[in-house]
Amino acid sequence: MADQDPSAPARFMDLQDPRYAYMFGFIQADGHLARGTGQKGKLTAEVNARDIDILRAFQRLTPYYSSISQRTRATNFSESHTSATWSLCSLEARNTLNELGLPYGRKSMNIRPPRVDFSRRDYLRGVIDADGSVGHTSKGLPFISLTTASTALAAYLCHYARKVTGAERTIKRNARDGIYNVLYTKEAAQGLAEHLYYDGCLGLERKKTKASEIRGWVRPADMRVAPPRRRWSRTDDETLLRLKDPATAAVALERTEQSCTMRLWRLRTGRA
């Protein structure tokens, strides 16, 4: 058994503690809680071996016996991929995690933010470290993204990021695989990175490095700044339906005719 972090709080998984909030977000997104016979079961979290330090941090924060193992195998992406797996069997620990919102078995569509008080930015950083990406696009633009099957997680990130950056996002499942891809770029990504990946926070070192790098991006002088997106209100919709003409509505609502045409089509087809 690894030594427990002496600075860890007395109560396991106190989500108001930033480290536990991060840890819970990470294992909620990338861990697996399995049932066994009787009261047996196991929590596992598997990462690329290069990220093994985060599993060691989880082990130090856990006042129950746990182990870390490594294995090398062929995958769809590599003929020789080495991964590290953290395993925790304690029934008491599993009950605590389950009560906080980590389901047994398949969970990708069912996970949601905790319903107790928790450190929000640390929780979201854990989710993004597990199921998201941080870095630069092929065109050199800074970005932060989250890929998830959970409506609750995607919606929560949008809600939280809007408060931090002012950027509006509307979630929609990918038609190919039913997954949400929530993306922030440019200044919105910078603001979110600075807020989530603060100095001294627990996290994957490579993503903390990327978060630090994207803060240095400067918008080119010739890159246009898009105006803030205006959301359609109920009054706007009522005016549009009453006028029935996108050109007339564009003048009345101070919007583009194209925007009014698309919104009217969405309202008439029930897709709004």
Strand coverage percent: 15-25%
Largest sheet: 4 strands, antiparallel
Task: List the helices and strands in order.
Answer: HEEHEEHHEEHEHHHHH
Considering DSSP H and I runs of 4 or more, what fraction of the residues is helical?
40-55%
Write a concise keyword list for the protein shown above.
272 residues; alpha+beta; four-stranded antiparallel sheet; 10 helices; elongated
Condensed summary:
By secondary structure, this protein is an alpha+beta fold. The protein contains ten helices and seven strands.
Structure, described:
- The chain is of the alpha+beta class and 272 residues long.
- The chain is 41% helix and 17% strand.
- Strand 5 and strand 6 form a beta hairpin.
- Helix 1 packs parallel to helix 4, helix 8 runs antiparallel to helix 9 and helix 9 packs across helix 10.
- It is elongated, with a radius of gyration of 22 Å.
- The N and C termini lie far apart (55 Å).
- 29% of the residues are buried.
Element layout with pairings:
Elements: H1 18-30, E1 31-35, E2 41-48, H2 52-61, E3 66-73, E4 81-88, H3 91-100, H4 120-131, E5 132-136, E6 142-148, H5 151-165, E7 180-185, H6 186-196, H7 205-214, H8 234-243, H9 246-253, H10 257-268
Antiparallel strand pairs: 1-2, 2-4, 3-4, 5-6, 6-7
Helix pairs in contact: 1-4, 8-9, 9-10
